[in-house]
Design goal:
Elements lengths: L1 H42 L4 H6 L6 H33 L1 H19 L5 H13 L3 H12 L5 H30 L3 H20 L15 H6 L4 H19 L5 H8 L6 H30 L1 H19 L5 H15 L3 H11 L5 H29 L4 H24 L1
Helix pairs in contact: 1-6, 1-7, 1-8, 3-4, 3-5, 3-16, 4-5, 4-6, 4-8, 6-7, 6-16, 7-12, 7-15, 10-15, 10-16, 10-17, 11-12, 12-13, 12-14, 13-14, 13-15, 13-17
């Protein structure tokens, strides 16, 4: 009997150790995949409006509008189809969704580099959005594989991968665009996404038990069984508003930097540096924020991040040089580390595992809607008023978000 108990204990410990090694290896692999995905995506973002400017003869209004559409169309299609992919993820697994996203992204971004007109760019980015979701599904996969006591740390570190890629992408892309032209970064991105596909296929292990379609609970039933569903809905809206705030200046940042530089110097490179500055700030504190969420709770961290972000956006209205803009965006990055990872941690802790795919897909849809609203808002406001006016509108969005979060916390309490 003693021998049997000892054997079973050793077997349990062996399985536990194996599971620990597997989720750690999957985490490292997905971290690299998220890094490459963010790197490849952000590599082309700072100068896409300048690239569009080479595809035709546009006045200022047309260039701002097409830049906003090119940014937003990806998020619009993502918002529409994400719930479908979320349901499929709960049926077939999140790893398959990561493979789908990385494979399609490899093709669409590569072919943007050979586009001859702005409509081709818009159509390809629409397809990219419709099949996107690598980082979101990687997050959902790790939410299911990671012990709850490490959730905040893992979510924070995945954010670090995203931010590190977003940080280096504009610098690398801006440098390549400055010396090799605007098309080369798209080709390199396509190749990098093939690497991501292969890494995910062969290095990630998912312990997934398929749920028969007949036994899958309707999403309405899932929501009705949540004790704090009001808070979950507020998290969706928070994701939407935070993403809108972070993306509002994205389609016009290179145009704004060009205005601040009076058309002199390497606009592509400086735009890349300014676009990357939030990444420096987030990278500096993301891991510490993850530990902080595990200690004091994600809601408090989220509240602090929203307050700081709102306060940082207001002085951006008064900038007169790229250096001033870059410093303020660095401070914004410090606050950004406390927002979307905190939302994801709340969802990870408060949502049943069998619904992770669908709940995270709804959150992704909210993020995608923010990705549509933010760039369009920035394009319209900058065309009607000025580039600086975008920052005041963005600060207003974050203040609205703060009021919503305070209301949700009172109802939960």
């Amino acid at each position: 009997m003693i021998i049997l108990i000892t054997y079973e204990r050793k077997n349990f410990m062996s399985q536990s150790s194996l599971r620990h090694r597997q989720w750690r290896r999957s985490f490292i692999s997905l971290w690299i995949g998220c890094f490459i995905t963010a790197l490849g995506y952000s590599m082309t973002m700072p100068f896409i409006s300048l690239y569009i400017d080479t595809l035709g003869h546009f006045d200022n209004w047309q260039l701002n509008l097409y830049s906003g559409i090119a940014f937003s169309i990806t998020y619009l299609s993502q918002a529409i189809v994400s719930p479908f992919w979320g349901k499929l993820a709960d049926l077939r697994g999140r790893k398959l969704m990561c493979l789908r996203a990385s494979g399609v992204m490899a093709c669409t971004i590569f072919f943007v580099g050979v586009a001859q007109n702005v409509m081709t760019v818009i159509i390809l980015r629409l397809l990219q959005g419709a099949f996107s979701g690598y980082i979101n599904n990687a997050t959902a996969l790790m939410a299911g594989e990671t012990p709850h006591q490490h959730s905040g740390q893992v979510m924070g570190n995945l954010m670090t991968a995203n931010v590190t890629g977003t940080l280096l992408g504009p610098l690398f892309g801006g440098y390549l665009a400055g010396i090799l032209g605007y098309r080369m970064p798209f080709f390199i991105t396509g190749i990098l996404m093939v690497v991501t596909f292969l890494l995910t296929a062969f290095a990630v292990k998912e312990h997934f038990t398929p749920i028969p379609a007949k036994k899958m609970k309707p999403i309405g039933q899932i929501f009705s069984q949540l004790d704090n569903r009001h808070l979950i809905f507020v998290m969706f809206l928070t994701t939407l508003l935070v993403q809108s705030s972070l993306m509002s200046i994205s389609p016009i940042i290179s145009l704004f930097v060009r205005q601040l530089m009076h058309g002199q110097g390497n606009v592509s490179l400086i735009s890349g540096v300014v676009a990357a500055m939030p990444g420096f700030g987030t990278l500096l504190v993301a891991s510490r924020v993850g530990h902080l969420m595990d200690r004091i709770g994600p809601q408090r961290v989220l509240f602090s991040g929203l307050v700081i972000s709102a306060l940082v956006f207001i002085p951006m209205y008064f900038v007169t040089t790229p250096l001033q803009l870059g410093i303020l965006r660095f401070l914004l990055g410090l606050a950004s580390a406390a927002m979307l990872p905190a939302v994801q941690t709340v969802l990870t802790v408060d949502v049943p595992q069998e619904a992770f795919g669908r709940i995270f897909s709804y959150n992704q849809s909210a993020q995608a809607v923010g990705g549509v609203a933010g760039p369009l808002l920035g394009s319209v406001v900058s065309s009607l008023d000025s580039y600086q006016a975008v920052f005041l509108v963005t600060a207003g969005l974050l203040i609205i978000n703060l009021v919503m979060l305070l209301s949700a916390r009172k109802k939960v309490d």
